[in-house]
């Protein structure tokens, strides 16, 4: 009987953690940009790989976003061209650059990162993201 109570307790704690992480997710849009990825606003000519992104004013915070990592998940289309762009996965990206005013997305992902979560033919997708 004691094992069953502990097991139920673990399930309840796991559910609470899951619901908290889902509740913390913000929503926005994502676009993508293509190489070269250097220089960047945060790191100059330092190579940070390809799982990277540029932050729009929504999260930029006058360079405070530099180096932050965000988990990004596609939640839907923004246009009729690709009605089901999402692949059902998420990706973790590091903010290395700034997407200036007029940026078409909350987060501008590298093409490689965008391709992990959605069909690049969509161009722009709806996302959930959290740090």
From TrEMBL:
Transmembrane domains' residue ranges: none
UniProt keyword terms in alphabetical order: Secreted, Signal
Signal peptide bounds: 1-25
Entries under Pfam families matching the protein: DPBB_1 (PF03330)
InterPro entries referenced in this protein's UniProt entry, alphabetically: EGC1/2, Expansin/allergen_DPBB_dom, RlpA-like_DPBB, RlpA-like_sf
Location of this chain's protein in the cell: Secreted
Keyword Signal applies: yes
Xref: SMART domains: DPBB_1
Every Expansin-like EG45 domain range: 28-131
Listed GO CC annotations: apoplast
GO biological process: systemic acquired resistance
Name listed for the protein in its UniProt record: Expansin-like EG45 domain-containing protein
Source species of the chain: Carpinus fangiana
């Amino acid at each position: 009987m004691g094992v069953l109570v502990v097991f139920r307790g673990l399930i309840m704690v796991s559910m609470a953690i899951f619901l908290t992480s889902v509740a913390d997710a913000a929503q926005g849009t994502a676009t993508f940009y293509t190489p070269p990825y250097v220089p960047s606003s945060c790191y100059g000519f330092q190579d940070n790989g390809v799982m990277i992104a540029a932050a729009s004013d929504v999260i930029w915070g006058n360079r405070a976003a530099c180096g932050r990592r965000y988990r990004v998940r596609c939640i839907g289309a923004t246009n009729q061209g690709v009605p089901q762009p999402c692949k059902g996965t998420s990706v973790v990206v590091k903010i290395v650059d700034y997407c200036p005013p007029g940026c078409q997305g909350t987060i501008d992902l590298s093409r490689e990162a965008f391709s992990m979560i959605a069909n690049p033919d969509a161009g722009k997708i709806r996302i959930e993201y959290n740090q």
